[in-house]
Design a protein that fits this description.
single chain; alpha+beta; 7-stranded mixed beta sheet; about 30% helix; binds coenzyme A
Length: about 180
């Protein structure tokens, strides 16, 4: 299956609904996108609303990945939202040459087939086209994600041991990764 990528998709009620569902499904499947699998739909819906508020304020930019039959779905491509990445932009003059990549996720049914690499390459292209000089990521340790991002050229530049606590007895390293865009 090939995916279509759309930068800054129009934020319709349908897109809000699909994003909320995607984020919930990915979180329930154990994805490393801010929550743990016990998260509720209401918690994700609230977080999705806050995320679109950041987009509306120009603080974040969205990249959407779509799949579908060209007829159903709520977005301009006629496809179903199956993946996202967001660039968190900075206004401070000291840091506005780079961006943090957040909420990188793919529908659990599509993971492991190379779509994640494509999603991230599109994200890198979007950042380059925006004139950014580097990208940064904060990765949850213990998920193997360092090797995924390493395939794209990201390098580990810092690690806070146990900096993330997912549950009373589940501490993970907070891993910082960095990609110069030259
Ligand atoms: C992370 C994610 C976007 C990767 O997308 P994907 O489609 O599953 O990954 P790909 O199939 O493109 O993987 C490309 C390569 O990276 C590797 N890889 C992907 N995820 C990996 C992981 N968690 N650990 C180790 N390697 C991984 C694959 O094995 C593959 O390598 P190969 O070609 O040598 O087999 C996707 O798995 C996802 O949405 N996960 C849940 C959300 C999440 O954790 N996001 C990360 C936020 S920091």
């Amino acid at each position: 299956m090939s995916l279509t990528f759309v930068r800054d998709p129009q934020v319709t009620p349908g897109l809000r609904e699909e994003f909320s569902r995607l984020w919930y499904d990915v979180s329930r499947a154990g994805g490393s996108v801010g929550f743990v699998p016990s998260v509720t739909e209401e918690e994700v819906r609230a977080a999705a609303g806050a995320q679109f508020a950041r987009v509306a304020a120009g603080e974040h930019r969205m990249l959407g990945a779509y799949a579908g039959d060209g007829e159903s779905g709520a977005d301009a491509t006629g496809g179903r939202l199956v993946g996202t990445a967001f660039l968190r932009l900075h206004t401070d003059f000291k840091t506005r040459h780079w961006s943090m990549v957040v909420l990188v996720m793919l529908d659990p049914g599509l993971q492991g087939g190379g779509h994640g690499l494509r999603l991230m390459r599109e994200t890198v292209d979007m950042a380059r086209d925006a004139g950014l000089e580097a990208l940064r990521l904060e990765v949850r340790g213990g998920m193997g994600l360092e090797s995924f991002y390493g395939r794209l050229g990201f390098k580990e530049v810092g690690r806070v041991p146990g900096g993330l606590r997912l549950a009373a007895d589940d501490y993970r390293d907070d891993v910082q990764m960095w990609l110069p865009l030259d």
